Amino acid sequence: MKRLVTLLIISALALTGCESDYTILPSANGIILTADRSVTAVGEGITFTTKDNNNTDITAETQFYVNDEPIEGNIFTSEEVGDFIVKAIRLGETSAALPIRFHDGSETNFVKRLLIEDYTGTWCGWCPRVAWAIEKLHTQTEDFVPVAIHRPSSNPSSSVYDPYNYDTTELENFIDIPGYPKGMLNRTTEWSGEQPDNLAQPVAFTQGENPRLGLALSPVVSNGSISLDVNVKFSKDFTGLKLVVYVLENGLIYDQHNYTIYYGGVDIIEDFHHNHVLRGVLTPLLGEPIDASQTVVNNTFTRTFNIAMPAAVTNAANIEFVAFIVDAQGRAVNVRKAVTGDVQDFEEL
């Protein structure tokens, strides 16, 4: 009886937000403002670009402001150390504010990426809208790493059965947002609205203050075993950090329910290609603590994994590895992915 009640609760939570009666929110085209770098040394230039939500470059039609003062063109340079706020205005519409900073040349910074965790299901008709948004986001930026977390049941007789279900109950309890789909940005912020029409929100996560830590991965897969080095370099002191490492699989083929207008608006999408699917976690799901003695300026922390291939993986040639650091509040600080054979260097700026 207890098991039956549990299954009913899971089904009810799963269906929350995934029924066919759904309200499409208004489009949020707006102005998407980005900088080629958010932090640089004095005397160096920062170049700004604006696009709309359909990836049309509108830079030439935009007036840029730094600390509320208009600038000529789309490049700004400062000869003094300091913080500045940039905004862009076009046809009376104003972008979100973008912080930038000039330092004295002594800082080490790293390429900044966004982690997107897409909670989805083959049974979930509204879930393709997040997958579509992720595909569309590639037209705006490549500075993000997607992970598809399939939920919620591994029981083939269940109405919410998903052959790629991975139990992330602990993580979902932590974020405490019921229902599917949901796209989480850097673990703790929900991608809001109709995601394909709100690309500005995830793009904003790739901008602004530098994470001041970078990752470099070196995975090798051989004879059903994984050997993986995850290196993390710090350019300032941190405390309370944790490491999370995922094993993902691409090219999984299974029919996908679809209530959306995307992918031709057809339900069911036959032989849908499911990519970046979570198949294994090499650390605790909420992270493996890193001792504070390791997370200090100029230090490189290395965690080595020698482990059997997760049993869920169907084709080892299609796997990728994702490693990221979370802070004491559980937010992802920076993330990087790699495939077998990569020997990555730190992406210092």
Automatic annotation (TrEMBL):
PROSITE patterns: PROKAR_LIPOPROTEIN. Pfam families: Omp28. InterPro entries: Ig-like_fold (IPR013783), Omp28 (IPR021615), Thioredoxin-like_sf (IPR036249). It comes from the Bacteria. This is Omp28-related outer membrane protein. It comes from Flavobacterium akiainvivens.
